[in-house]
Amino acid sequence: MVIKEQVERHTISVQVDNEPGVLARVIGLFSGRGYNIDSLTVSEVDTTSRQSRISIVTIGTPLVIEQIKAQLHRMVPVHHVRDLTTSGSHIERELALVKVVNSGEKRIEALRIADTFRARTIDSTLSSFVFEITGNSSKVEAFIDLMASLGEMEVSRTGVSAISRGATADMPISHGAEE
Fold it and tell me: Domain range holding 95?
């Protein structure tokens, strides 16, 4: 009898030097080993020391996740690697822009759903709306699923951005700090 390990979803934050080729090397680590990236966001978070934070959502067995973290730790421009899924409570948010093309009663229903989800209307024409929604991925997905029944749709999603809860700065930056 073969026992199959459970596949898990993990959110990993990586603080790296903001220099050419670093993101390509991180992505190459995943693609070269056949690991999938479900979501990837990156932005400079510290202009003083030129560091960026990469948030990666991936799935894998516990062994695969540990291998990913170990390989990330070994990369030269990496300063911190934190698995937010296993290191305690954390906050995840994603932003999506959702365009719905419709008319008549479906427009009223689109506005009602947007209000329920606290989505903002950021563009409106006689035959379309563009909504901005922010929340965890399951909230964004539920909103998109409901809007899909109301007309032709176009969606742009940012991917997950995440940070740990609490009074500890797990990935501190020097930006604006007194020296």
Answer: 91-161
Co-location of 156 and 97 in the same domain = yes
Q: Residue 40: count other Cβ atoms within 10 Å of its Cβ.
A: 16
* Tally of domains in the chain: 2
Burial status of residue 63 (CB atoms within 10 A of its CB: 0-12, 13-18, 19 or more):
exposed
Per-residue pLDDT reduced to its tens digit, 23-67: 999 999 998 888 999 999 999 999 888 999 999 999 999 999 999
Is 13 a domain residue? yes
Give the length of the chain.
179
Query: Could you read off the pLDDT of 61-95 as tens digits, one per residue?
Result: 999 999 999 999 998 889 999 999 998 899 999 99
Q: Is residue 166 part of a domain?
A: no
From 92, 90, 85, 91, select the one nearest 65 (Cα to Cα): 85
Six-digit token pair at 60? 């894998």
Helix axes 137-148 and 105-116, enclosed angle (nearest 10)? 170
Beta bridge partners of 101: 128, 152
